[in-house]
Design a protein that fits this description.
Helix 1 runs antiparallel to helix 6 (107-129), helix 2 (28-51) runs parallel beside helix 3 and helix 4 (76-90) crosses helix 6. This protein is mainly α. It has six helices and no strands.
Length: 130
């Protein structure tokens, strides 16, 4: 595994700990934002490993999966995860959307989101071990 790849995966592992703490303290909007970051960084790890290039500074998960060359391997469930995470990355940054997005989050939804994010990260790590 390349050093660049390990760098991105280390960031993911740190963000998992942060997301877990945010979920426990019921800070749901930031927890969702961290789930997006975990997923984004996992995809950037694949790009770093397969291309030996610095991943692009974009946040669109579908575009990153495509750039990583794994879009065809991503399951429908994982694509749905991308759709759930997107509003938490974009809209959570802007005050006019923040309250609206936060109002849609429940602890149950966020627990599921965190679980799906961890499963995705494990899947990415398995892809990188091939």
């Amino acid at each position: 595994m390349r050093d660049k790849t390990a760098y991105w995966l280390d960031l993911c592992d740190d963000d998992v700990l942060t997301a877990k703490a945010l979920l426990k303290s019921e800070r749901l909007l930031p927890m969702g934002f961290f789930c997006h970051m975990i997923t984004e960084k996992a995809l950037k790890a694949v790009i770093a490993e397969r291309t030996d290039e610095v991943p692009p500074r974009i946040h669109d998960l579908a575009k990153l999966a495509n750039r990583a060359g794994i879009w065809e391997s991503v399951s429908d469930e994982q694509k749905e995860l991308f759709k759930k995470l997107t509003p938490l990355q974009i809209e959570a940054r802007y005050p006019e959307y923040k309250e609206r997005v936060a109002a849609t989050l429940t602890k149950g939804f966020c627990k599921q989101l965190f679980s799906e994010t961890e499963v995705f990260l494990c899947w990415i790590k398995a892809q990188l071990e091939r």
